[in-house]
Specification:
The chain is mainly alpha-helical. Among the domains are: 120 residues, no CATH class; 71 residues, Orthogonal Bundle (Arc Repressor Mutant, subunit A). Strand 2 and strand 3 form a beta hairpin. The N terminus is likely disordered.
Length: 376
């Protein structure tokens, strides 16, 4: 059967489904179907992905190619293109997560029947990334575990293994297990460095430095950045992480704000780093506020904001949150713009004495009740 007859079959299938027929493919029309390999299609999509700002075009091309593969009954190529389509939907701005998850779920059942372990690992990894983007960390962890179980029975290339380690490190960080996350990012860094993948290696190195900062080891950040590997990949991304580590070491929220302003693209442009630096920023803000309000029983919020170098509205919102979270005893007088801090008197000894007296009275009543029962 030639590709020309396959093209007419695609038009008939699209007509029955109520869709417009797929566009003609002049390059494939002269070729018999048996001589038309799948690799050129994958290479064409890869080359298209190298064009900046071509995300929507890639999505349209992949969607049209999937329809053509269905009409031509090219299952393996269709699955590959569907995975690329799901990855593009995940990387879109904004991400289209439900369609991506639906594609991956449908493809997963087919690949399980085909028993293609390599492809199964890639699908589980992509599903884990989608679930993580949906903020469903338990399901993301389950998908990653399934992918690693499938990878145990086959040879996994260093590039795919590094991607698995990066995802495992990301999930460990979201679970606040930064020590385990550091080990995963270190394994990923070694693999990507051996592949001469500089952007990927720098990304994994930033993950290592982030884990050191979040485990309160800022001195190790300087050692890593000034080491052999750090000097090899020196640049603004690593300088940004070193600045964050120094700000954390100094417990200076103002210094951290300055670093975030100077290296906005390197820090806030990285989703993993931005998410955890937000947590670190809140932690430093709480520690600075607690230290500032400690000597006061009544203080103006504007004065606290001036001491810490932040806007009064932000300080007021954070103090209100800390009062609700019971980080300290106090209340906000918004009419006067003041913070009232209550003294922590500790446990009242009269309360313990009262409880002891009530317990003794209870024993006396029980004894009298027993004696009355015996008289009857």
């Amino acid at each position: 059967m030639s590709s020309r007859s396959g093209a007419s079959g695609a038009a008939r299938a699209a007509s029955r489904a109520g869709r417009p027929p797929p566009a003609a493919r002049p390059l494939t029309l002269p070729c018999p179907r048996a001589r038309l390999p799948a690799r050129p299609f994958r290479l064409a999509v890869d080359r298209l992905g190298e064009i900046p700002g071509s995300g929507e075009t890639q999505i349209a091309v992949c969607a049209e190619t999937v329809e053509w593969c269905r009409a031509e009954k090219r299952s393996f190529l269709r699955i590959r293109v569907q995975l690329r389509l799901a990855a593009l939907l995940l990387a879109a701005s904004p991400p289209r997560l439900p369609p991506a998850l639906q594609i991956v779920s449908a493809v997963l059942g087919e690949v399980k029947r085909l028993d293609d372990k390599q492809l199964l690992v890639e699908i589980h990894l992509l599903a884990s990334k989608i679930q993580h983007a949906l903020k469903n960390v338990p399901k993301a962890r389950a998908e990653l575990t399934a992918g690693r179980a499938a990878a145990n029975s086959i040879y996994v290339g260093p590039e795919l293994q590094a991607a698995i380690d990066v995802q495992a490190g990301t999930l460990s960080c979201d679970e606040r297990d930064y020590r385990t996350g550091f080990s995963y990012f270190y394994e990923a860094f070694e693999g990507l460095a051996s592949l001469a993948d500089e952007p990927g290696a720098v990304q994994a190195f930033k993950g290592m430095l982030l884990c050191k900062i979040m485990t309160e080891q800022p001195d190790d950040v300087s050692l890593l950045v000034n080491g052999k590997q750090g000097l090899k990949y020196a640049g603004r991304p690593l300088e940004a992480m070193r600045g964050v580590a120094q700000a954390f070491k100094d417990r200076s929220l103002l210094a951290l704000e300055r670093v975030l302003g100077d290296f906005r693209a390197e820090l806030l442009g990285d989703k993993l780093v931005a998410r955890h630096l937000g947590f670190l920023q809140d932690l430093l803000l709480e520690q600075n506020l607690l230290r500032l309000i400690e000597p006061f029983s009544c203080v103006e919020i504007a004065h606290v904001a001036a001491l810490i170098g932040l806007a009064p509205e932000r300080v007021e919102a954070k103090l209100s949150q800390m009062v609700l979270d019971k980080k300290f005893a106090g209340t906000l007088d918004q009419g006067r713009g003041q913070l009232l801090v209550f003294a922590d008197g500790g446990a009242d000894p009269a309360y313990a004495s009262a409880l002891k007296a009530v317990g003794s009275l209870g024993q006396v009543v029980d004894t009298l009740h027993g004696q009355v029962a015996k008289l009857k």
